[in-house]
Amino acid sequence: MTNTLEPPAAASQTYTALFNTALNFIDAQTQDPNLPSRMDFDRIRALCSPGFEHSWGHNYAVSLAPPLQGSHSVDGFISHLQKMLPNLDSWNTDVMDAIVDEARLRVILRMSLWMQVKGVGEGDAVENDILWVLDMDGDLEKLRVKKSMEFIDGLAAGRIKELMMRKM
User: Fold this and answer.
1) Count: domains in the chain
2) 34: alpha, beta or left, given left = phi > 0 and alpha = psi -120 to 50?
3) What is the CATH number of the domain that holds 55?
4) Which residues are within 8 A (CB) of 149 and not within 5 positions of it... i.e. 6 or more apart?
5) What is the pLDDT of residues 38-65, one digit of tens each?
C-alpha cells in the first residue's frame, strides 16, 4: 500500500484510532510475497469484528454480478479474495483521501487499486477507483471493522474480468 496520508495534527484520539484502523485494514490486503497466499488473511481476520459483514455497491452493477450480491462474512470476503489472487501477478493500493466520522465510527476511503493480471504485459495494470465505507466497533484501544461496503469502478472491474478470462 502506498500511503502518504496522516491524520491532521489537531485530530482527536477517536479520529486517529478510526483513521489508523481503516488504513490497517487496507494495508492487511497488501501483497506479501513471503506468504504462500500472498495476502495475510489472519491479519485481515484480526481487524474484523466477529459479526463482520462485507458488501459491494453500486446497486445496479451488483444486481448484474451474482458473486457480489448480498453480504459476506469475513470468511466469505476472504474466499472472494482467494478466488482473485491466483489470477493476479500483483496489486497495489494508493489511498488518496479519508473522511472520518467520529460520531458514527465510520471512515470512507478513496483509493486506487492497481491490479496486474497474470500473463498480461508489464505496465498494463488496471486502475480500479474505489470508495470503501468502513464502520467500526470496539473501544479506542481495539477498534475493529464491523461493516464494510466497497464501491468499485464497474468498467475497471469489467476490464479486469476480461483480461482474466482471456488468460484462461
Assistant:
1) 1
2) alpha
3) 3.10.450.50
4) 54, 55, 56, 57, 132, 133
5) 999 999 999 999 999 999 999 999 999 8
